[in-house]
Known about the structure:
By secondary structure, the protein is of the alpha/beta class. It has a domain at 174-218.
Amino acid sequence: MDPRRHPLVIVVGxxxxxxxxxxxxxxxASAHAGDDTLVMTFDPSLRLKDALGVGDEAINEETPVAxxxxxxxxxxxxxxxxxxxxxxxxxxPDEAAGQRILTNRFYDRLSGNLAGALEYMASERLFEVxxxxxxxxVVLDTPPTRQAIDFLGAPERIVSFLDSGALRIALKPxxxxxxxxxxxxxxxxxxxxxxxxxxxxxxxxLLRDMAEFFQAFAPLFEGFRERxxxxxxxxxxxxxxxxxxSGPGSGRVADTLFFARRLTEAGYNLGPIVVNRVHxxxxxxHPATKTEGHRLLSWLGRRDHEGVxxxxxxVGDSHPVVEIPLLPDEPTDLxxxxxxxxxxxxxxxxxxxxxxxxx
Length: 359
């Protein structure tokens, strides 16, 4: 339950709940505690890049952060295309085979836009750094997907795709040496008409690029499949702990419970559930002095605290629910990130001690 006891920490949640900033703060707190820590994040805001003191040189590379902590801190800005390219180089049987894929126009579209590619590359990069074993702790901020569960299902989808009949069909030699469809080349004028129709409806150039890509990619399938299975094992390992981040309010409770149930039922090790950016409860004031702003903030405070109470009641003793208040300003430097990390750890300690769990 305590992320400070796990070498791999994965922060999941929907978009806009502050999980990227929280992941950075957790990593910084880990470094303050003396652990050499790597924070990996996708597409962080410029503000967070500035706070960590890193730039584009940190894309897929581990860049030291001048944090003056007891343990060393690194940051890495994950890029799906760079990670995908590196996998191609690793599994290609030779340099020529790798270049055939990397210069293919369909691959250029696929590597950055295929549904699940971003999620899979996040888990793939996590496996790389975990396998290297150069850090005491790795904190991964997952991609900003609508449903955090997309990240977890990415390796399984890769395996299913590589085992599918659709892939075997794609590997068939559909085009001849002149780039003509074999099925229509023997039909004369009728065949040319069919090709013209397909070209207008789908685009033969795209189909040729796809066929060339899958033919060139064939020698790499087994390596990708084996790696995806290893990634699945890592995500379900006891050394990996998930932190689920949610926004405040009763309207978020159902989605949060759904994510939590999916995680645990699938065999993932779920730790704290963090309700982030909770509005404070305002002190009552005389009705004559109430302003519209005060009424709105009072309503938001009641809504958020009722939502936290409802979530605690429904979660019970299964997972600690950590409440993080709405801060006056988002962290913009290492000092404010450190403060957020300390706040998270103090609230976590309160939850764990209240449950009789050693921190």
